[in-house]
Amino acid sequence: MNREQDPGLDSVDRHILAELQADGRMTNVELARRVNLSAPPCLRRVRRLEEAGIIRGYHADIDPVSLGWEVTFFALVGLESQKQAVLDAFEALASSWPEVRECHMIRGGGDFLLRLVARDTAHENELTARLTNAPAVLRVQTLQTIRTAKDEAGVPVA
Amino acid sequence: MNREQDPGLDSVDRHILAELQADGRMTNVELARRVNLSAPPCLRRVRRLEEAGIIRGYHADIDPVSLGWEVTFFALVGLESQKQAVLDAFEALASSWPEVRECHMIRGGGDFLLRLVARDTAHENELTARLTNAPAVLRVQTLQTIRTAKDEAGVPVA
DNA sequence: GCTGAAAAGCATCGCCT
DNA sequence: AGGCGATGCTTTTCAGC
């Protein structure tokens, strides 16, 4: 669907990506004005970027606390085996929990980094316990965020 | 700007949040149809959610690889002091790097979890070295993502 | 707080450069 | 490839329930 480092990505495309990353609900007319194009070719470029899989979607960024998710934390989970079946099973289990927002397998074998949300500290403890007691889990290290200095969703478009 | 667990957030509001989290560029008419409202009150609700800070923004989700960011990794950084001035200085330094996308201070003193992007493995090594050599840094543990099973930007709207 | 109509603005198409 | 003009929607406001 998308090639590595697409050659047909000029400075106008990158400008479009930067603008839509900053404000994904901008109208096409406003976007066109900012990148010095008229509306139709601007829209054609956006559609092309979407169809090439370079723009994967658009999402509202919602304040977790407003929805009752008071705690965000990370967990480093170590498994007792590196067998593919064990890794897959843990991955499937973790991914099935709505509180698990990210699940990354870490190089070096048998470790996962998760990002989770919890309603409160008790809920966080419960989630940690559920992780600890999950099949093949050896240890769980929770990394509790006390302050977030920077949290930018995307990537530099330099 | 936003209160904890806003009481004036009914099921229609939550439905709106879920829809815009899934597709932030949906037209207001389509959104209204999905939440069984006509367009004007739907738009008023969206504006209210934006002004209350519950919707913090809208962002295009861009494929990092298409822009040349081949490597995404995390770094656990331990500092040699927990003095506020030292923590603040590290936070300011890390946040100033465009490759650092997230910078979280971790409970327990003197630790930070960063999420970074790099153009390639050499660039990743260079960033790790820059972290290691930064003032007051005691150790850097890189957590290299080899597979991401789940990566949902938002929060459960249940 | 919703509906419905109406004005203004936008998305999108076909054609031309 | 980008621009122009036309058409049909969408957004947004406003009066009235």
TrEMBL record, chains A, B:
Domain HTH asnC-type intervals: 9-70
Entry-linked SMART domains: HTH_ASNC
Keywords: DNA-binding, Transcription, Transcription regulation
Source species, domain of life: Bacteria
Record-linked InterPro entries: ArsR-like_HTH (IPR011991), AsnC-type_HTH_dom (IPR000485), Dimeric_a/b-barrel (IPR011008), Tscrpt_reg_AsnC-like (IPR019888), Tscrpt_reg_AsnC/Lrp_C (IPR019887), Tscrpt_reg_HTH_AsnC-type_CS (IPR019885), WH-like_DNA-bd_sf (IPR036388), WH_DNA-bd_sf (IPR036390)
Entry-linked Gene3D superfamilies: 3.30.70.920, Winged helix-like DNA-binding domain superfamily/Winged helix DNA-binding domain
Protein name: Lrp/AsnC family transcriptional regulator
Organism: Roseomonas nitratireducens
